[in-house]
């Protein structure tokens, strides 16, 4: 056998090979980077650690946590801790100076932990849990700028929260909740508050993990869905083929993105309509989606719609 034939066979073997961990090198990397496995975690000498694909899986608030982490500007949730707590803890989207956690110098010694923070590990669930545990031991006035990352072992949100507890989100128009009642911001905190308030986009929660946002002269609905991606894509395809994927007049399906293991469909909305006008259409679309989550093959029209939906997907952390 000549060298040319041998080289061809070797290339063919490499193309069909499956990595030791069971991942085809030509498939998308499970880390969510959008690259093929062979160009990402499967590359020789490449990244060896894989980020947790669904860091909030198993929590009743998984979809809400994804929304608060990725695109809701100002919101808080009072957390229900699984163990006796020294002080109450509130989860916030962003804290002053993008801190990971802080303890107020007020009567209750209220503790706050941030979700939109710089992380050192590949598991945001573990980082936020560490912030919660830090807040139980910190002194009033203490601020945690960045989560200490000594190792990859430690409790996660699934360990420190009541997993099935209601996750009640309160959306705010600004970041006044950073401050204790009657407190006046000073120094860097005052500057950070001013900048944060100036950059905030009007946002309203109009359904479970469904958020309306006004960005300049455009309005959007972003809806974090809990279903497995393939099942949800098929349901969206069925609605798209039937012409019922929109939210009524003044709306258009724009596409979807992946975040922390979940799919987030997005709709363009009429910016002239008040956010509350979309509550009923969202609820009705939710009912149509529930009916479309059936386990049967797609028709040829539905497959064509599905191909178009896939072409409009992106992945973010």
Automatic annotation (TrEMBL):
InterPro entries: DUF5926 (IPR045970), SEC_C_motif (IPR004027). Pfam families: DUF5926, SEC-C. Residues 55-317 form the DUF5926 domain. This is DUF5926 domain-containing protein.
């Amino acid at each position: 056998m000549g060298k040319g034939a041998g080289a061809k066979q070797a290339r063919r073997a490499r193309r069909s090979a499956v990595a030791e961990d069971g991942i085809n090198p030509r498939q998308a990397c499970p880390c969510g980077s959008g690259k093929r496995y062979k160009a990402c975690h499967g590359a020789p000498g490449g990244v060896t650690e894989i980020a947790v694909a669904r860091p909030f899986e198993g929590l009743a608030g998984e979809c809400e946590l994804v929304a608060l982490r990725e695109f809701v500007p100002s919101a808080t949730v009072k957390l229900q801790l699984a163990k006796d707590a020294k002080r109450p803890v509130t989860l916030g989207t962003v804290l002053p100076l993008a801190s990971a956690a802080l303890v107020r110098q007020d009567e209750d010694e209220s503790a706050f932990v941030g979700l939109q923070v710089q992380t050192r590990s590949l598991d945001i669930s573990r980082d936020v849990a560490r912030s919660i545990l830090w807040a139980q031991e910190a002194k009033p006035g203490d601020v945690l700028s960045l989560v200490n990352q000594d190792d990859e072992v430690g409790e996660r949100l699934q360990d420190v929260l009541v997993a099935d507890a209601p996750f009640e989100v309160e959306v705010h128009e600004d970041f006044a909740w950073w401050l204790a009642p009657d407190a006046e911001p000073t120094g860097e905190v005052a500057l950070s508050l001013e900048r944060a308030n100036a950059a905030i986009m009007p946002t309203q929660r109009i359904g479970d993990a469904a958020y309306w946002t006004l960005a300049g002269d455009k309005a959007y609905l972003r809806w974090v869905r809990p279903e497995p991606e393939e099942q949800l894509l098929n349901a969206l395809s069925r609605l798209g083929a039937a012409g019922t994927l929109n939210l009524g007049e003044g709306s258009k399906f724009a596409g979807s993105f992946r975040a922390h293991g979940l799919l987030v469909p997005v709709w363009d909305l009429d910016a002239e309509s008040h956010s509350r006008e979309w509550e009923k259409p969202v609820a009705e679309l939710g009912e149509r989606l529930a009916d479309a989550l059936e386990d049967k093959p797609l028709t040829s029209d539905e497959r064509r719609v599905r191909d178009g939906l896939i072409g409009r997907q992106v992945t973010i952390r």
